Amino acid sequence: MVDPAYNVPRSSMQSKFLVAVLAAPLLAGPKTPEIAFERHVIDLGRNEACAVADVNGDGRLDIISGENWYEAPTWKKHHHRELFLFNNYLDDFSDLPLDVDSDGDVDIISAAWGSRRVGWYENPGKGQGMWAEHVVDEGSPTEFAFLVDMDNDGVKDEVLPQYGGREGFTAWYEREGKGAEVRWNRHVVSNKLHGHGIGAGDVNGDGRNDVLTPEGWLEAPKDPRATGEWTFHAEWTFDKLGFLYVYDVDGDGLNDVITSQAHDYGVFVLRQQRDPQGGRKWVKELVDDAWSQAHAMTPVDLNGDGKMELVTGKRLYAHNGHDPGGRETLGIYWYERVDVGGKAEWVRHIIDYGGRSGGGMQIPVVDLDGDGDLDIVVAGKGGVYLFENVSH
Fold this sequence. Notes:
The protein has one helix and 31 strands. The protein is mainly beta. The strands form eight sheets. It has a nine-stranded mixed sheet, with no helix packed on it. It is globular and about 60 Å long. The N and C termini lie far apart (45 Å).
């Protein structure tokens, strides 16, 4: 069950958000060093997703988004595929870099809602020319997908899509073979959909990665490839989440769940605890509810303090302005959890506010320029942007 102890309702803070973010951190926590970011406009064209990988094998990390990839260090645009445009969306809701065919260069796995498929685009070598498309699976509108470790080998090379619609199934995909012989095996974990949002991680501490949904979690069996539905634990219920990350946020040895309302207000943590009988219970701890449409989030040690921070941001027109707060000001933020008088509080730091850039569907956080600190890439309907960490 979910204990709403930390589920603080939104207040007038939303209307005073601009003043708050310009004047002070979200909460009156300890003064922490800010991280300076310099914004670079990569492309003003419409996109939804983005990724970072060495596309051409020159040792530099490039940016991939939508129909193009951008070559480091000058971000020269290379057109490599044609995508469907529908209802104000470019039909590319996830870009996942992986050497699918094991030929030594990085390919891109893409999730698409309008064309109802998950596919992968084959790098012809050094990224040049148009990339051939291959189907992973089709027939279901796909909200997004992630690379996860479902076979528990320590490598995130399986695909976990979040299918939309009212009817369907929940499954992960494993590739088999090399080169032209690559094929994808579908492993169904539930013969139904469990809402908008998906994730993977070890919820119960048995060393196996489970599948998380807005309606609860599916417990992985000893053999994740075994046929049959996984045991479902209906321990929480939410509507329209983004990705659900599993991480021990409070350091108590129990894994917690980090997620957000993708089409409403709220970024929050479900802290795993034990009731007097030793059963699991979940306490909702609010991170921030002053802005809406946090569709993407990346947990990462952004400031190098050895602790996990959250990087997230407001997606531009996630539902074409019809979501709660859908037309409010865009912003990108990072959050850190600090101790204030013996109580945990989340402090908001601004990366960008009031521009065209938002959180989009993915937020890669990597050392893009090799200078020892972490940079941030975002993409959305307002374009593709690099936020270069210039704190060093």
